[in-house]
Amino acid sequence: MRCYALALGVLLLSPVAAADGDSYWVKPDAVLDVERGALRDGLAIRVDGERIGEIVPASAIPDGASVLDWSGHVAMPGLIDLHTHLVGDIQGASPAAPLLSSAARDALVGAANARATLHAGFTTVRDVGTYRAFVDVALRDAINAAQVEGPRMYVAGAYLTVSKGGGEVTGLAPDVEPPAEMRRGVADDVAMVRRRVRELINGGADFVKVIATGAVLTAGTTPGAPEYDEAELRAAVDEAANAGRFVVAHAHGAEGIHRAVRAGVRSIEHGSYLDAEGIRLMREHGTWLVADVYNGTYIAQVGRRDGWPAEILRKNDETTGTQRAGFREAVKAGVRVGFGTDAGVFPHGLNARQFAFMVEHGMTPAQAIRAATVDAARALGREGEFGVIREGLAADLIAVRGDPLADVRRLEDVRAVIARGRVAVPLRHGDVAR
Ligand SMILES: [Zn+2]
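That is the input. Now the predicted structure with zinc ion docked in place:
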């Protein structure tokens, strides 16, 4: 019985396994050059192990070579989401819900979320926080070891937050304390900020996520209100820099944004009340804006349907329009924009829905695609590793039907995925144009 199951498993996996570690060719109709915002017809891409080996005219593919036929499709670099929360359940009606799941369950749910994200064409994520510290580190490491299927992850370890601030589990009775592993990033003064940053990095964090203002989804906090002063934010940036890491700041309110940018954070997340001074500062400092401009529509629809708390729905309504207006101004002013969705508030795998919102609010499709590929890689400090289709870079490739520059919603239906040279989603037979 056991042998039979094993044989069947090998049989089912063989089309995928055959590509691992070997050289093979991908032959699409066209390749999207994300830097120039143009399609290049008639090219083929050779994948050597985890990397792109060569890009040549399709006529130059040697006879007898192993070829993945992506006829009828455009090949482009794997997508990057700079703001996900893969660990644990998606947002529900109760802010205290994280207390109902164990760390082990959070990790296993995270594995399913990671797979859904990868299969939607996102081959890299910057995962910006988990309530239970370091579950994200374990998930990242399991993906890197090929024990779990998922995108390349950069992780925060936990949230650096003030007591009862936007990164805490709230909504509990006043005499109930969350467990210690949910408070590993709580810090209320400069010395504690420095200590927490060191602990998070020692625990395996790739960067630090600081909650600089209140949050829409954290009961009892005010998105417009700053929660850290500038000295505390600067301490986080300095301490992270000692370890060669950067800080990204959750910041809705204008004052919190100004403080975080002046303190030297690498990106502003959300940016709901971004004003002219914030835009000026971000341009001056080269700070990235990662604004989840789809999310507000999802929360308004599902939150009302499912009876989320009135306080959260009100805060969402207050921030959605201002965020989109600020995003438009930032794009116009030339602020650096990276694609980040807050997936985890909405189901993982729907990340690409945000492209149409970015285009509706001031970007061209080419700009929105750059924000999720070459520019996102830059925001991660990983340009030259992935984010474009170029010889020597990671073989992160996806197939879409038709031209995403003409209709960016093509990205909501990714038809095939290759991540670090491994075929995660093969092109289905019915997709091949004849
Ligand atoms: Zn978030």
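DSSP finds twelve helices and 16 strands in the chain.
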